[in-house]
Structures
1.
Amino acid sequence: MKIHEADARAIFAKYGLPVPPSRLVPDAEGARKAAEEIGCPVVVKAQVLVGGRGKAGGVKLAATSDEAAKKAKAILGMDIKGITVEKVLVARAVDIKQEFYVGMVIDRRSRKPLMMVSPAGGIDIEEVARTTPEKIIKVVIDPMFAVMPFQLRRMTSALSADKEIAKKVGVILTSLYKAFMAVEASLAEINPLVVTPAGEVWAIDAKINIDDSSLYRQKDVAGLRDESAEDRGEVEAREAGLSFVKLDGSIGCIVNGAGLAMATMDMIKHFGGEPANFLDIGGSSSPDKVLAAMKIILRDRNVKTILINIFGGITRCDDVALGLIEAKKQLGLDIPLVVRLTGTNEDRAREILKGTALIPAATMEEGVKRAIEAARQ
Ligand code: GDP
Ligand code: MN
């Protein structure tokens, strides 16, 4: 789950990270007042759940409160990567002498928290990783011991030769680790962490993603979810009990079981296609679930065809078939559907689907190939 910068800043501040004062406001007048309260210069920042706001024009400096109101007016309503800006954060601006990247993720390989720092801050870290990977210092942290002093020294010395600054950054990294662990984040990032000409260190951006699996016990954090800023399909899927992740391809996938869904996507890629989504309708799927899945997938304009790949165990193939018929009726489907149903009640399912325009496939491979063919037309 992604949370807004304003909320991530509050979490960081709670754990002692140096975050400039800020206010979240919905309009230009609010921005003016916030700038007066905080003291100028300020920076006005679009609050949307995507990165790269700076490049998109969603982050602007203002020297006076009048200017803050003007900048807020320009940013509010702006479309950034498909999301409309409804609120802006007005924060005290700082002078920048140096910009660092500092971040944490869960490292799958070592199955431990991983801290990353780079003196190449302020820019897209994926870009740094691609072009100059040696500029990123990675440290795997053992949660039994937390961040060790020698690990801190390795990171801080890579960022600054100045002892005072290195010391400040060391304290910040320790706090970042605490915050990351406390909210059970899957990612926590400060890009950039800046050094001012006077030698102060400030976290001027804040990004935290929370591990969805921990939300049931992270009640405070769970309340920060902003559904209006999330992908609509993903919100609806969650409500319908489906697990869904939108991707950029043209082949919609309806599959039961996360493993089979992954295998289906792999096979689509293997034969040269691009999946439009990951979707697991889970076990014991009712026709309703299939219908919900279909609606969500069809909202995506890139989808040229849908591949339904069901391995009937607890999931009954006839239930899925009924769902497909219902969906076709209700949604007036005009794109090809490739269906592979195997397992429990597959005979009944085949009976139900007989005479419809659905493209049947006997094996997964055949289904995938047919879907790719259909998507090309
Ligand atoms: P992002 O583009 O979504 O990552 O948003 P950021 O919060 O990182 O802001 C983008 C850029 O705006 C930063 O990399 C800085 O260069 C600039 N910026 C943000 N806040 C300040 C500030 O307080 N002072 C100055 N001088 N620049 C800022
Ligand atoms: Mn940033």
Note: The chain has 13 helices and 18 strands.
2.
Amino acid sequence: MAAAAASIPVVAIDGPTASGKGTVAQRVARALGFYCLDSGALYRIVGLLALERGLDLDNGPALAALAAGMQPSFEDGRVLLEGRDITDAIRREEVGRAASRVAAVGPLRVALLALQRQQRRPPGLVADGRDMGTVVFPDARLKVYLQADLHVRAERRLKQLIEKGYSANLTDLLRTLRDRDQRDETRDCAPLVAAEDAKVLDSSALTVDEVVARVLKWYRGD
Ligand code: C5P
């Protein structure tokens, strides 16, 4: 890594699906005036394109070539790819499932490394995902591993979906979250695990405000 990039601070926030990482990362980035990287969105984009192009979800070379050639942009909460707004498309359930499958493919993960590291720009970056602290930004200034009880996460996801007008039920969500966690935790390449030097935070009984306050306190060292 270039010496200049190494001096740009990174806050890495990792954890299982629906642990609240995305919301917390955005709020922490806003408070610090930093850029924000939602690394899951990159896996979702690859999942979407793979489905649209009929690619096998375990075809390493094809997925890596897809990722190496894509130039998504993130503007005002929207995700754009070649002039197309794919913000809502990448949040679809089937795309999430495809993302979770392609995320286990080693060559794809390697192909996405450069794209993720390019987001490290002054004055700093808050990055959320599964391997931000372990693989992508091992020198992050602060690493947080955010976890929450499975039932709490499923309830939160259910509430979000219902608020957005989607139909969903708790039993299906529990199964989906459990499957995704298991796939992320047991894959060979960059499995979901807390970095040795991560601060582990269980948000089951905490509000978003409390989690954000805790992360900012750690970052500021008080
Ligand atoms: O975070 P989100 O649920 O949007 O991520 C979609 C999928 O991408 C996850 O289920 C996970 O398998 C994968 N992912 C990953 N590594 C990351 C971010 C996401 O493997 N850094």
Note: Residues 17, 39-40, 43-44, 96, 99-100, 103, 129-131, 180, 184 surround cytidine-5'-monophosphate (CB under 6 Å).
